[in-house]
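The freezer alarm interrupted the setup, so I double-checked each line after restarting. Inputs confirmed:
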Amino acid sequence: MTLKNTSRVAALVAAAAAALLSASATAQATKLKVGLMLPYTGTFAALGVAIENGFRLNVAEQGGKLAGREIEFVKVDDESDPAKATDNVNKLIKRDNVDVIVGTVHSGVAMAMAKAAKDNGTMLIVPNAGADAVTGPMCANHIFRSSFSNWQPGYAMGEVVAKKGHKKVVTITWKYAAGDESVKGFREAFEKGGGQVVKELSLPFPGVEFQALLTEIASIKPDAVYTFFAGGGAVKFVKDYAAAGLKKTIPLYGAGFLTDGTLEAQGADADGLLTTLHYGDSLETPRDKAFRLEYVKAYRLQPDVYAVQGYDAAQMLAIGLKAVNGDISKKADFAAAVEKAKIDSPRGAFTLGKSHNPVQDIYLRQVVGKENKVIGVASKSLADPGRGCRM
Ligand code: BEZ
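Predicted 3D structure, all chains:
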């Protein structure tokens, strides 16, 4: 190579480096637009608020910035309504041009969000909805979950109930993805353990007319009942189950959403209930104690599993952003960083599996007064099978 050519190459390399630096500086200088698509009305309203609180708490702990970028929030109330989900998520993507979407609670809404995120290449972090498909057939390198798959707590409880020696179980839930998949996970482990699901009962989401179904349970007289309900519906179900006189005769087990964030309203009717979940009120680790203290200081409320999932969504976003110097368009590098990270969660540190779902301990909890007291680990480092995920 001649001297002239060498210096031309050097000049080109320098120009490219300068362009890269200035792109990264531009990324750092502009605010990161975070689209929060959550329910702020309806049976899951309190869950949406807790997720946002947790997310904001983590951002505040990082000085109000993630990887040096200030945050601008754009909020949409998705009302836990799948029929409005595509329009709602497209507002965030196409009208507001958000850099990343954080949402949501309801599995049916989350599936519409995952489709839109895939179609448009938008970064998505799911801070609750357990829809198995999101980290199954719909998985993508820019879609992450900070919460759980519906299969996980259900499967863990199936093992617990089988080990207790119950043989015949009735399940009861809302008829939509989360209820169906929670029951499916339960059935898989329970039947592997020698039990039998003798009847699957359901009602449409977000209905709370439980009476006829409770009468049916009383007439079947199973050894136990497994259930998935959450939010306002869970409050009503636990109260109705006790009022029907079933609590004294047929033990009730549930995915932990049944009693998380609901105990004030459920009162003594929830006392003693056993549930499985990836968080509890009495972990007593220094990490969890610090989180709980800061949460109470900030919001004058006790945190719940939803707050933890929001908090961890912000942690995951920060990890990815740091790796790409704030430039969220570098999806492969962002994903590589989150995939190899150990996320320092109040629930206990966790990693993500190949399909971007948390690999985590599922605790066995018992309601004692106003607490979901952790009484053991139902399933250690439980990974969702990620069925159908090709990445
Ligand atoms: C869901 O729809 O995936 C869901 C809603 C509330 C709590 C847990 C899961």
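Quick read of the result. The longest strand covers residues 371-382.
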